[in-house]
């Protein structure tokens, strides 16, 4: 979308009742909302969760559908706001590309957002790596905290996909260069600092959560940021990044975009502060959680919603015919080719996600993200299958038509909100033992028959019990492509075991991270990364960021 077509951000703010003096403008089209403005009004909006079935590698368009639905509701006279995550530059230059929606349902200015945006990711990276530097400095000068270099768990992060940095040795070059030790890098979206920022309501809670982050483990317990007395320095770096960002869609609908943890290796939700802003400044909020409902939605409902005391009123499951064919065994290269047999074989994946969301007490509808090569016959078959199970659905052509193409979905959302009541309840209580929490997620949400723990995971559970950390929530890291921990096991697999090889502790965020299967927290680039499709002309105009 041409920049001259965008509205000044002050005009976007006016749609949600904010004056130009209420926001911190960063150029013409981006702004931050100060925390005192966020909380000046009571909550009033109904909250809609946008999720999906297990996606294909290109994704199924949750962000595009979130944007398109918000635009459609605005066309219907509803004060709707999309509240979304910020993109990571790793996937932007990797395989998936940007994360601002697409076509006529994008968040703008999309190129700015997909690159540096307002600097939030850089601030998080700086805070995370400052802590890493302070930890190495502690052991270099003779640790007063008795930190054992081999027991340091705090790595470094960068907002790039770089497999070469997964395992590194630092401190080489002689005694004056540091203490040699093995460590590694994660991507910024997997940083606990990212999780802490997105799960904090204000600077006071941010400082407290930062203080609880674990940097190493000893014989008698964890060594934390509070032991190092580094929480105020980290908070200083993050103070501006705590403010949510205000931008707009292709049709000038307000978007509050803030925070960007991945759902496969972190909890996959935008910040609590951004959600609070949407709930207090509009009548309907559409928020998305990363990847399929087994990852982002589960973590939204079992981590973010209980922490923020959110009451979601509706879940919308995004499905594409392409994804159903893929789960039915059709190769991705052919997944746009009509194949009734593959559709019928793959629809079990959709049924599982719908059943899971209904088990939380949520009303559930299905949004069919229609592609240009989908046939009417296939769409009618899918809507018929859903109707047989009493699941309401609507096809949306929001990529091509924007809000106009989402009016049927918008009407369905309005009808569902007015006729159905949510009875939301998380899957587990905090008091449940950690192993029981993991088992409940694995068996009830993924459909596993059991959970198998590797030696490192067993040792981690033993330490957590010994050190009275059973109250932590669970944020499982696993592949996004399957309900299982095996990305090749598509559809609705049954009779499999979830393999947990290790468990990381994110005490500041308030959860543990069981690492399932081969899941790693620093992605790599594909053979043909999207970075090679980016061009810049002599006028500085950037193209190819999609």
Automatic annotation (TrEMBL):
GO biological process: tetrahydrofolate interconversion
Recorded metabolic or biological pathway in which this protein acts: One-carbon metabolism; tetrahydrofolate interconversion
Residue numbers binding ATP: 56-63
This protein's UniProt keywords: ATP-binding, Ligase, Nucleotide-binding, One-carbon metabolism
Catalytic reactions of this protein: (6S)-5,6,7,8-tetrahydrofolate + formate + ATP = (6R)-10-formyltetrahydrofolate + ADP + phosphate
Assigned EC number: 6.3.4.3
Main enzyme class: ligase
Family matches, as InterPro entries: Formate_THF_ligase, Formate_THF_ligase_CS, P-loop_NTPase
Pfam families according to UniProt: FTHFS
Entry annotated with the keyword Hydrolase: no
GO molecular function: ATP binding; formate-tetrahydrofolate ligase activity
Listed HAMAP family: FTHFS
Similarity annotation: Belongs to the formate--tetrahydrofolate ligase family.
Protein's UniProt name: Formate--tetrahydrofolate ligase
Organism: Sulfobacillus benefaciens
Gene that this polypeptide is encoded by: fhs
């Amino acid at each position: 979308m041409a920049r001259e077509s965008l509205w000044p951000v002050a005009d976007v703010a006016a749609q949600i009742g904010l004056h130009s003096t209420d926001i911190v403008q960063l150029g013409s089209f981006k702004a931050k909302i100060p925390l005192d403005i966020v909380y000046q009004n009571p909550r009033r909006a109904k909250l809609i969760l946008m999720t999906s079935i297990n996606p294909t590698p290109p994704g199924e368009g949750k962000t595009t559908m979130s944007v398109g639905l918000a635009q459609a509701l605005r066309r219907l006279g509803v004060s709707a706001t999309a509240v979304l995550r910020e993109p990571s530059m790793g996937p932007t230059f990797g395989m998936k590309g940007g994360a601002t929606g697409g076509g006529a349902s994008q968040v703008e200015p999309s190129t700015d957002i997909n690159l540096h945006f307002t600097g939030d990711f850089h601030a998080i990276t700086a805070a995370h790596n400052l802590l890493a530097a302070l930890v190495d400095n502690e052991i270099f000068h003779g640790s007063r905290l008795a930190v054992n270099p081999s027991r340091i768990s705090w790595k470094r992060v960068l907002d790039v996909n770089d497999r070469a940095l997964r395992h590194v040795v630092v401190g080489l070059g002689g005694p004056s260069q540091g203490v040699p030790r093995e460590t590694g890098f994660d991507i910024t979206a997997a940083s606990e600092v990212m999780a802490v920022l997105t799960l904090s309501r204000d600077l006071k809670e941010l400082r407290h959560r930062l203080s609880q982050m674990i940097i190493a483990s000893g014989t008698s317990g964890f060594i934390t940021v509070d032991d190092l007395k580094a929480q105020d320095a980290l908070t200083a770096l993050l103070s501006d990044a705590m403010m949510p960002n205000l931008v707009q869609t292709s049709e000038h609908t307000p978007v509050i975009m803030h925070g960007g943890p991945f759902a496969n290796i972190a909890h996959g939700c935008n910040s609590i502060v951004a959600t609070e802003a949407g709930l207090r400044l509009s009548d309907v909020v559409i928020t998305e959680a990363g990847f399929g409902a087994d990852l982002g939605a589960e973590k939204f409902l079992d981590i973010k919603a209980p922490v923020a005391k959110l009451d979601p009123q509706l879940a919308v499951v995004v499905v594409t015919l392409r994804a159903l064919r893929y789960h039915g065994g059709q190769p991705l290269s052919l997944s746009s080719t009509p194949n009734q047999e593959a559709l019928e074989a793959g629809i079990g994946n959709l049924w599982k996600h719908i059943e899971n969301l209904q088990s939380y007490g949520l009303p559930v509808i299905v949004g069919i993200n229609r592609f240009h090569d989908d046939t009417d016959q296939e769409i009618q078959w899918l809507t018929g299958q859903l109707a047989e199970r009493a699941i309401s659905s609507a096809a949306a052509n929001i990529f091509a038509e924007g809000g106009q193409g989402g009016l049927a979905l918008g009407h369905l959302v309005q009808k569902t909100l007015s006729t159905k009541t949510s009875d939301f309840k998380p899957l587990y209580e905090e008091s449940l033992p950690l192993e029981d929490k993991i088992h409940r997620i694995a068996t009830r949400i993924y459909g596993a028959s059991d959970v198998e723990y590797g030696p490192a995971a067993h040792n981690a559970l033993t330490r957590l019990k010994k050190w009275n950390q059973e109250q932590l929530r669970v944020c499982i890291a696993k592949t996004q492509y399957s309900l299982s921990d095996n990305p090749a096991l598509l559809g609705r697999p049954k009779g499999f075991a979830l393999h947990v090889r290790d468990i990381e502790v994110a005490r500041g965020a308030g959860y543990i991270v069981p690492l399932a299967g081969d899941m790693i927290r620093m992605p790599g680039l594909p053979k043909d990364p999207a970075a090679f499709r980016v061009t810049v002309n002599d006028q500085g105009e950037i193209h190819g960021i999609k």
